[in-house]
Structures are given as structure tokens and as C-alpha cells.
Write a structure and sequence with these properties.
single chain, mainly beta
Length: about 120
């Protein structure tokens, strides 16, 4: 599986962005998907996860209520809608895929990773 993340950019605090992650392969619909981020000088952290069908989602406390993860299995794509962005959301955002279909929260539980897309939120 190859993952290609896009949609990052520079936005002012309070603004919004939508990240996309396009996956190759015919088995996308069987994978759980997740978004992680890594800020400069910090470890990679979990942001959001979605199960194979899109029926279950989970968010880090820091983004809950502001970010929404979704997926379109017909398009082999997972999205991260980010609203009310804050400067502390600045990071490189990575999408990841797990061959296990249920929700996954730790980076070691994911099998495939995209290249990352940079989100910068200015104050």
C-alpha cells in the first residue's frame, strides 16, 4: 500500500484545512486508517483514527471537537477536516494504514505510512 498525503499549508489561527490521504491498492476498504502529527522537536503523536467502514472514529483530546476524520472507500481516500486551528496544531501530518480493521491508536500498530504534509498555523 502506498499513501499520499496532501492538503497542508499555511493558515491563520481560527482557520481551517482539509487533509487528504490517497491510497493505492484494492484492499483499502479493509484497513483502519489514522492521522498522526509531529511538531518540531517533539515526538510523533496520535491525532485521529477511523475503522475500516468509517463507522467508528476516535480523536486525541487536543483535537476532539475541532477535527473530523472520514473516509471514502470508493475513492481510496481518508480525510482530516481541521477547523478552529491553533498555532499548537503546527506540525507535519502523516496518514497511516493498519491491516487490522478496527481502531488503532499507537503508531506501532500501523503498517504503512505516507510521506507527511506540513500544516503551519500562524497566530
Amino acid at each position: 500500500v502506498q499513501l499520499q498525503a496532501s492538503g497542508g499549508g499555511l493558515v491563520q489561527a481560527g482557520g481551517f484545512l482539509r487533509l487528504s490521504c490517497a491510497a493505492s491498492g484494492r484492499t483499502f476498504s479493509s484497513y483502519a486508517m489514522g492521522w498522526f502529527r509531529q511538531a518540531p522537536g517533539k515526538e510523533r503523536e496520535f491525532v485521529a483514527a477511523i475503522n475500516w467502514s468509517g463507522g467508528s472514529t476516535y480523536y486525541a483530546a487536543s483535537v476532539k471537537g475541532r477535527f473530523t476524520i472520514s473516509r471514502d472507500n470508493a475513492k481510496n481516500t481518508v480525510y482530516l477536516q481541521m477547523n478552529s486551528l491553533k498555532p499548537e496544531d503546527t506540525a507535519v501530518y502523516y496518514c497511516a494504514a493498519s491491516i487490522v480493521a478496527g481502531l488503532r491508536f499507537d503508531s506501532y500498530e500501523y503498517d504503512y505510512w505516507g510521506q507527511g504534509t506540513l500544516v503551519t498555523v500562524s497566530s
